[in-house]
Amino acid sequence: MRQPFIADIKRNSLDDGPGIRSTVFFKGCPLSCSWCHNPDCIRAAPELSSRQPSCIDCRDCLSACPNGAIGPLGPLSLDRGRCRRAARCVEQCPAGALEIVGRRYDLDELTGALLRDRSFYRNSGGGVTLSGGEATLYCDYAGALARQLQEASTHVLLETCGHFEWERFAAQLLPHLDAIYFDLKLADPAAHERWCGRDNRLIIENLDRLIDQRGTGRPEVLVRIPLVPNLTCTRDNLEAVAELLRTRGAECVALLPYNPMWIPKALALGRPAPEQPGDRWLDADELALAQAVFEDFTVL
Amino acid sequence: MAMRRASIVEHIHDVASLDHHLMPNNIAFNVKVAPGPNDSQSDAVGHMTGYARTFFQENGMQMQFNVVSTETLRDAMRNPELYPTLMVRISGYNAYFNDLNDDMKRELIERAEHRLGA
Q1: Which positions in chain B touch A125 (Cβ < 8 Å)?
Q2: pTM score, two decimals?
Q3: Residue of A100, A124, A127, A96 whose CA lies nearest to A111
Q4: Mutate which: B5, B7, B38, B55, vs A, most A CBs within 10 A
Q5: What single string gives the DSSP state of each residue in A44-64?
Q6: Over the stretch A107-162, which tens digit does the pLDDT of each residue have?
Q7: How far B8 CA sits from the closest chain A CA (Å)?
Q8: Minimal-distance CA residue of chain B relative to A55
């Protein structure tokens, strides 16, 4: 069983499903959307995150590194090719500006950590959300985790980009899910490949398969659409996505307004913030446009 | 090592685990929660119910909610005439925010704020 690296366990999650939840962020994603709000979850391997606003320029990291990965400018001159995640720099940094994102958990250890808050889940109609990154890269591990959680009377919700191999998903993970949040971004396959790294063919096939399961006691599926200025939140794209959903009988959607708070995370990982999308929030007109296009849906 | 701010669920576990027999003069657990602009009332009430019910199931003794944002309190401190009826929970009693002295106002403003949803 391939053990994933987990970027974070976020307790008291109120926006990743019903009730009070804990959200597990798996590292690794088959997509690389240019607006990704969890850029530290795109790559599967652990990586060093260095928050420049916290850095005090003491250069303790430089002398601590056993692999010569940090140059004269401190973390600004980090050579990620040389970084072996020894984490001596993390230990030495007096400003707490450095962190290795991603660690492994034994299955029982992770279940135990998530069940600390089981009373909150029970008292609020909450549970555990599998997110990231993309948990379906690790169907055997995620499925075993979901099964243990369900055996402990815990609701399990999967957030997914929809790009996964169906057979393995259906055999290992789907049977242990209570609900699925299925993100749909761009209707046009070429645009999807341009902005997300792959086209949307497999994603739409999987959506169809999941919708076919409706009414068989399978998990409820809610489609969510990230509203990214100029990229997904355009009349053309939204109308195409709405029509795609109408032909499949979907009645509810969630609309996710873009925010730029992921940009400092990307910078801390040494990635330049791309020009599109920008660093502004979705504005009221754009939100109104999206709501108008989805007028005949129940927007959650 | 990076410091991570604890969430309200961790505070609830921690305070509930204290032995109240060792605190004969009472315990005040003050929590400020701030509903976000997109929260439905039933969501907000549901979350607060979850926090309170879990706290008492874990043998917590007393818990006080202030449901107001830090932003509102700061504005009320600058412009009291705009908030004549703003009430806050102190420690076992309510008070009009405008009647408090500056130190108490600042203490309420500085109490950790937990957002109820985005």
Answers
A1: 46, 50
A2: 0.91
A3: A127
A4: B7
A5: SS-EEEE-GGG-----HHHHH
A6: 999 999 999 999 999 999 999 999 999 999 999 999 999 999 999 999 999 999 99
A7: 7
A8: B2
